[in-house]
């Protein structure tokens, strides 16, 4: 069941609150929810992002590819997360500590 449907013209997406009712069952997997929402909107599950679930209140949905947070897109396999080595990250952190202000 969906409610509070909003269309964002600038980001070219729809977002809504979704109530997931699952009496007598454990928490429903997000992949299953994506498939059902895709069937309702006559689209494919790969363009739907489901996140922010809370017990009794439901969660949000948005079409994300362009503007969604990268970690959430990587979780669905829509973009690759660049992986640097641990040592590189530490060296970068220590170089940043030596520079004061915005020249980082």
UniProtKB/TrEMBL annotation:
Signal peptide: none annotated. GO terms for molecular function: structural constituent of ribosome. This is Small ribosomal subunit protein eS24. It comes from Ailuropoda melanoleuca. Keywords: Ribonucleoprotein, Ribosomal protein. Residues 59-104 are annotated as: Disordered. GO terms for biological process: translation. GO terms for cellular component: ribosomal subunit. InterPro entries: eRP_eS24_sf, Ribosomal_eS24, Ribosomal_uL23/eL15/eS24_sf. Residues 63-75, 84-104 have a biased composition (Basic residues).
């Amino acid at each position: 069941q969906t409610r509070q449907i909003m269309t964002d013209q600038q980001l070219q997406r729809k977002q809504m609150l979704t109530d997931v009712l699952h009496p007598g069952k454990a928490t429903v997997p997000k992949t299953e929810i994506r498939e059902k929402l895709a069937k309702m909107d006559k689209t494919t599950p790969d363009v739907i992002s489901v996140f922010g679930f809370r017990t009794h209140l439901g969660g949000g949905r948005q079409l994300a590819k362009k503007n969604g947070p990268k970690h959430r897109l990587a979780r669905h396999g829509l973009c690759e997360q660049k992986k640097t080595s641990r040592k590189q990250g530490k060296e970068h952190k220590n170089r940043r500590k030596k520079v004061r202000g915005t020249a980082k």
